[in-house]
Write a structure and sequence with these properties.
With about 475 residues, the chain is an all-alpha fold. The protein is built from 18 helices and no strands.
């Protein structure tokens, strides 16, 4: 196809609009962080087995991906008085909030024989709401801005807010909730947890609606005078002729699989609670490294403005591999139980430095793919004349979630094979050689393999800075 078929008018945004819209991603990540602990609720409170929970959550993650193409299709068909994106933010939040409350408050109360089915039905409703809101995350930035120096700012705000969201949730759980209730086998812990998340995520969603409000109208949808005709077959056409989105989704899927493994709540319990014998550190350390991480993210985004998002993704991923390897060697050859915030020593300083650098570059590599979807959306418009942010975001999410779904199931099945088929490892468990190996395997080896795949695939992604500059009118 002729890549000069169309050029795109420049569209810039106020910085506060980009910042507030990024809170939509924060809202979904608050729910995601909470649902990271749902296996402990389903196992310890609802009484479901480790294997059954792992199979259910893996299936639900795949279902999450399957719903994306449908939601993306409807987003591209939506051009009403309330915009293309705002209705899906609001409806998505409502579905997630209601289903989360129902799940954590009532699952353990239904008869045990129908409890797995009940859990699946309620969780499915949550998944639909989650898909509504995350589809907007992947597609809405296409109308916020297309300025090459502004798009990296989406990554800056996403990385910053998500880092604090996950960090504060970890602190809230490991320090406050566990300190208050002592164990994950307390219904009151999850009741308080879900109410808190629903309130905070609701505030974030409301601010996101405000952020995209003035941009969420037909003036920014790049529609021709005639009505844009979008069909499900366009998914296959896009996959066929849009090589950049193919490469991006494969690279991001590999990255997300790694993220789902090392970020699994059970893996974090194994790392901080068992290997380091200091589970509250899981939350405290996120607060400590927060400001240094912001500095790393800022440097990365400033660099992306100069060299482009593709280059920064590759470079940050290489740095992640380097720092993860150093951390792995520390886990093998040093005693991480000596890491202490009350008695500072060399191991503590070394661990904090490596952890800070690692999490900073991971924040960049994990989140810079989102504005890169917008680059692929603009590229699609130049070669086909179709402005389809919903389809592009949904296509990305479908493949991304389908592959990353394996991460949750992978951890559960590997633990079951290792002997943890009835109950997940708990913070009070003693460290064994087997648990140490599993922790290193989940937290270090799998991510390194995933990142190497990402770097290889990005060699075939052609939307670098120079290519993108050619898409826009001066």
């Amino acid at each position: 196809m002729d890549e000069n078929h169309k050029h795109i008018e420049q569209n810039r945004a106020k910085i506060w609009q980009i910042a507030l819209f990024s809170l939509n991603n924060t809202s979904t990540n608050l729910f995601l962080a909470m649902m990271g602990y749902v296996s402990y609720y389903a196992n310890g409170i609802a009484g479901l087995s480790v294997v059954l929970i792992s199979v259910i959550l893996t299936g639900m993650r795949i279902f999450d991906g399957v719903t994306d193409p449908f939601i993306g299709y409807f987003i591209d068909k939506t051009n009403g008085k309330y915009g293309k994106f705002r209705p899906y933010i609001v409806l998505g939040y409502i579905l997630m909030a209601v289903s989360s409350l129902v799940l954590f408050f009532t699952t353990s109360l239904v008869p045990f024989i129908i409890r797995p089915l009940y859990f699946i039905v309620v969780y499915s409703i949550y998944i639909i709401g989650y898909t509504f809101q995350t589809a907007v995350v992947k597609s809405g930035q296409a109308v916020i801005t297309n300025d090459l120096k502004q798009r990296p700012m989406i990554t800056f705000f996403d990385s910053t807010f998500i880092m604090f969201a996950h960090g504060l949730v970890a602190f809230y759980v490991s320090v406050y909730l566990i300190g208050k209730y002592k164990t994950f086998q307390a219904q009151e812990l999850f009741s308080e947890f879900v109410i808190t998340v629903v309130i905070v995520a609701g505030i974030c969603s409301a601010l996101a609606v405000i952020g995209i409000w003035s941009k969420d109208n037909i003036a920014y949808f790049k529609l021709d005078d005639r009505k844009q005709q979008i069909h499900f077959k366009d998914y296959f056409a896009i996959i066929k002729h849009n090589k950049p989105i193919r490469m991006l989704v494969i690279a991001a899927a590999s990255n997300k699989f790694a993220q789902m493994v090392y970020g699994n709540s059970t893996v974090l319990v194994m790392l901080y609670g068992i290997l380091m014998h200091n589970y509250p550190l899981a939350g405290i350390i996120g607060i400590i490294v927060g400001l240094p991480n912001l500095g790393i993210i800022y440097v990365g985004i400033h660099h992306a403005k100069k060299v482009g998002q593709k280059t920064v993704l590759v470079r940050s991923t290489w740095f992640a591999i380097i720092f993860q390897t150093i951390l792995m060697l520390m886990m093998i050859f040093t005693d991480l139980t000596k890491v202490s915030l009350t008695h500072i020593n060399f191991i503590t300083i070394a661990f904090l430095l490596v952890f800070t650098m690692l999490n900073g570059v991971k924040s960049i590599s994990n989140n810079i793919v989102v504005p890169m979807i917008a680059d692929c959306t603009d590229y699609e418009y130049t070669i086909s004349g179709h402005f389809v942010p919903g389809i592009m975001g949904a296509l990305f999410s479908f493949i991304d979630k389908s592959f990353s779904a394996l991460g949750t199931g992978f951890v559960g099945i590997a633990l079951a094979i290792a002997g943890y088929s009835k109950i997940f490892p708990q913070v009070e468990d003693a460290l064994t050689p087997q648990l140490k190996f599993l922790t290193i395997f989940f937290y270090c080896i799998i991510p390194i393999i995933g990142w190497l795949v990402t770097i290889f695939i990005m060699r075939f992604y052609k939307l670098d800075r120079n290519t993108m500059r050619g898409l826009y009118k001066k």
